[in-house]
Amino acid sequence: MKRIRTGALLLTAAALTLALAGCVNPNIKTSKDFGGSSPASSGAPAAESAAAPAAGSVENAAESAPASAVSPAEGSASSAAESALSGAASTISGAETASGHVRTEEVTSESVTLDPAWEYAANSKISSGAATLYYAPASIANGHVVCINAGHGTKGGSDVKTLCHPDGSPKVTGGTTGEGATEAIAVSTGIDMKDGTHEAEVTKRLALVVKDKLLAKGYDVLMIRETDDVQLDNVARTVIANNRADCHIALHYDGTDFDKGVFFMSVPSADVYRNMEPVKSHFEEHNRLGRTIVKALENAGFKLFEGGEMEMDLTQTSYSTVPSIDLEVGDSASDYSEATLNQLADGIAAGLDTFFAS
Ligand SMILES: [Zn+2]
């Protein structure tokens, strides 16, 4: 768990200036950087969506910020630092995260790449891309980091294979890759919705809505993919989440075509699987997260498919050391209008509130 160090920091003018240089409006910069390997047109929507929650969050934060959180930073800021604040909210209250990032009253962000020293990182085959970690405004931050992984969207991902399990053992269930296989497609292309729209496009849209909801609630959000392509395979996505988030939710639509409802891929009950690390130490938390989220989605008005869970041996779960699920929010026949995506995002956010409260 990552906890913020609460309370306003007394920053020197120099430190504040440095912090600002690193933090002010990085959203747009990183979004553009992030879209570097995809068509230029895909950078624009990401930048817009990154800017939108920042503006809204500043308003919310300003309304709810206690006066005491504001005054120390203002009092210690020199005129030079104050001039650096022009255009930003005048309420820069510092709160340093566990990773050393200094929060402001704006949504800030940083790029996160795969560190080759991280456990299991060596099993990744596609890892040149970057995720983006968004920090909630200081006055509403709750200290929890949620990884939202928009399923699919890795160009060339289906031409490469990675080990299904960290130890090279065979899969215990079927799925995209058959039972008994030791290697699986690094990132599959995903399904097409009934109208021909790619799953990767719809999961991206949903992820962006979820991001905004979570930031407004004070969660930090690690976004694996916000554009059409990110060069991170399923192993890399999982290892990044393991090291920079408190839980990991991958968003998917299933390949059937009868609007089957919502479910998550639960951890197979096979002993050999549940005795394999890191599954052994984490499977109960994976299942608790999944059950909590699908229950919240049911409460939000969605039907569940067969009780809301299906056992599946997935690369994601096989490498996860934080609570982690593949969430199937529907299938190729399911509605994905903006209203439905909002409803899904509200349910996911409510489920996360419940998960972290217990
Ligand atoms: Zn999928």
Structure class: alpha/beta
Order of helices and strands: HHHHHEEEEEEEHEHEEHHEHEH
Radius of gyration: 20 Å
What is the overall silhouette?
globular
Major sheet details: 8 strands, mixed
Named once each, the bound ligands are: zinc ion
CATH topology, what is it called?
Aminopeptidase
Report the β-strand fraction as a percent range. 15-25%
Report the mean per-residue pLDDT as an integer: 81
Number of separate helices: 11
Portion in helices:
25-40%
CATH superfamily: Zn-dependent exopeptidases
| Alpha-carbon distance between the two ends | 14 Å
CATH architecture: 3-Layer(aba) Sandwich
Overall structural domain count: 1
Detail the poorly predicted runs.
Answer: 1-92
Indicate the CATH class: Alpha Beta
Total number of beta strands: 12
Biggest sheet strand line-up: 3-4-8-5-9-12-10-11
Secondary structure topology:
Layout lengths: L12 H11 L2 H9 L8 H22 L2 H10 L2 H6 L10 E2 L5 E2 L4 E5 L18 E5 L9 E6 L10 E3 L19 E3 L13 H18 L3 E4 L10 H11 L2 E8 L7 E5 L4 H4 L4 H21 L4 E8 L3 H5 L4 E8 L6 H20 L1
Parallel strand pairs: 5-8, 5-9, 9-12, 10-11
Antiparallel strand pairs: 1-2, 3-4, 4-8, 6-7, 10-12
Helix pairs in contact: 2-3, 3-6, 6-11, 9-11
The protein binds zinc ion.
Task: Describe the structure in your own words.
The chain contains 11 helices and 12 strands. It is α/β, with parallel strands linked by helices. The chain has one domain (105-357): Zn-dependent exopeptidases (Aminopeptidase, 3-Layer(aba) Sandwich). The strands form 3 sheets. An 8-stranded mixed sheet has the order 3-4-8-5-9-12-10-11, sandwiched between helices. The chain is globular. It starts with 12 loop residues before the first helix and ends with a helix. Bound molecules: zinc ion (ZN). The site of zinc ion has 5 residues, from loops.
